[in-house]
Amino acid sequence: MSSPIPLTVRSSMGISALTGPPEFKALNGFNTVTSKNCRSIQFSPNGDILAYLNDSQCVLLDTTNWSTIATIQPCKANQMTFSPKGTFLLTWEPFAITKANPNGGPNLHIYETKTGKLIKSFEHKKQSNWQPQWSSDEKLLSRLINTDIVFYEDLNFDKIVTRLKCIKVRSYGLSPNPGTYFFICHSPGSPGQPSFGRLFKYPKLETQDAIASKSFFQADNVDYLWNSKGNNALLLTSTEVDKTGGSYYGKQGLHYIGLNGQTMMLTMSKEGPIYSVEWSPKNTEFCVIYGFMPPKATVFNLKCEPVFELGTGSFNSIYFNPQANILLLGGFGNLSGNIYTWDTLNWKQIGTCLAPDTTLLEWSPDGAHFLTATTSPRLRVNNGFKIWHFSGALLHEKPCVDEELYDVAWKKYPKYTFKEPSISEKVQGIESSQPQASKKAYVPPSLRNRPTNPKVQGEGEKAHKPGGDSGPSKAALKLKKKREAKKAKKVDEDEQKPSATVVSSVQINLSGDPEKDKKLKNLKKKLDAIEKLKEQQSQGKVLEINQLAKIKGEADLLKELEQLQV
Questions:
Q1: Three-state SS string across 486-542, please?
Q2: Separation CA 74–CA 445 (nearest Å)
């Protein structure tokens, strides 16, 4: 397609729209919505409808000419989503109890997008798990009610065809397969017992009908990551708290389940949290970022074998472009905003840029551009968005000076609308007006004016194929050689100094009893060591906690020595 791809912008001033690269102009035909109460915007999966929530109404727009299709009111919803084909719009509003309605009422609604007509309403009190899950052909709809999964067929929302009630379900994930339907559910275990993830093929819903069953401990929550074909899934298990104290992020595990019943736990080469997991649109690979800082990124195949190691770095987020030929790694949140792009065919880095304070990143449907944004309420300062080329060139920048930015979204298009972008393409960018943060690393006051510890800097791991050379760079090897030479020189100088051994003034009298004499010698050795620590302390050296504890135990050792020599 030659025409620019539109973007919609939601802020504290309302909703506006503009064209993407290369024009970046106001979008013709779109009537700007001026309002301070726009709560949400969303495109349908194929991009033919734009829905937005404003004040007490929901408006549906035809994106071919931006005319109004339907206006739903009153509508107090603050959450909404489309069905896979865009046939229906589903909204959720907070469950409310009033004097006029002390028992509350339905708060989950299904509307027909062509007319805005209300088709069905349900009651779902909690915001968690409010979204019903569809098959990609929209012939199967499922909902979680308490601990049961209920199923509706052929768009008949008045009749529950069947339900899974043989096990208590906390959450589940329905595959996007058309025609043949699978789902995985999570059943939490009782105290001391494992939780289970079970794979079922609809409509066989008895426990013995499970195609696969995977047990795991430490699984308060489970995220279900199906590939786009729906024939393989990853389960990201997590706990809120890591009881070992090893991680601020809790404890995570990653498990694979295939429709053939095969299950396995992913083994990773570095300990620590799992920050991000993402399937490639190719459906045959997935990428994981994991490990204590600096984290590591690895691409795995369907056998859960490493295909390529992307090394370690300041990143914690993964984004594949829609055509799957470019992989983007970003470091956001508590990281500085570094972005790296990779050619997934040859596994070569093709670009890098810096987008500090990024809270939102989204690829353009053309796969050649992406946007980054700083949005409220996550960050209320420096709100705005930028459009980038995959090579790292900044193409457009829009700061929000007198307003808060809430959301930015590309218009969606059907799959295969855009061809795979050429990796060799290079473009000329612009300079950002945003002040760049200092590249000098922050040093705590307690460590200032002290020699730099090379171990703190870290040498990192370079990108390589599994089994290849992942050793440190030439600069790191040179630094290591200098450290070793300096250490050897210090050892030589220490050996040339006259030795002044510090020993305790305590004398021992051997008795001739081998066991007793052995105890006496050990006590003498410990007292000599304590005397050496006391000497170091008097010279101003800061001792460790365990060394101070040894000094405190001197009186007990002297008492034991006295008893042995009686």
A1: HHHHHHHHHHHCCCCCCCCCCCCCCCCCHHHHHHHHHHHHHHHHHHHHHHHHHCCCC
A2: 57
Decide if 169 contacts 179 (C-beta within 8 A).
Answer: no
Contacts of 233 by beta carbon, 8 Å cutoff, 6+ apart: 173, 175, 184, 199, 224, 225, 226, 227, 256, 257, 258
Distance CA 448, CA 147 (A): 56
d(CA 512, CA 525): 18
Q: What is the per-residue pLDDT across 37-48, written as a single tens digit (0 to 9) for each?
A: 999 999 999 999
Longest dimension (CA), the chain: 105
Which of 244, 240, 238 shows the shortest CA–CA distance to 290?
238
Is the entire prediction scored with pTM above 0.85? no
Task: Supply 175's token pair.
Answer: 């595959």
Q: What pLDDT, on a 0 to 100 scale, did the predictor assign at position 128? A: 86
Q: What is the pLDDT of residue 467?
A: 72
The pLDDT of residue 347: 93
Judge whether residue 305 has pLDDT over 70.
yes
CB atoms within 10 A of CB 250: 16
Per residue in 119-172, pLDDT (tens digit) is 999 999 988 889 999 999 999 999 999 899 999 999 999 999 999 988 899 999
pLDDT surpassing 50 at residue 435? yes
- What is the C-alpha to C-alpha distance for residues 498 and 475, in angstroms, rounded to an integer? 37
Cα 216 to Cα 452: distance, rounded to the nearest angstrom = 43
SS3 of 560, please?
A: helix
Q: How far is CA 410 from CA 51, 370, 371, 416, 534, in A?
A: 13, 9, 9, 16, 69
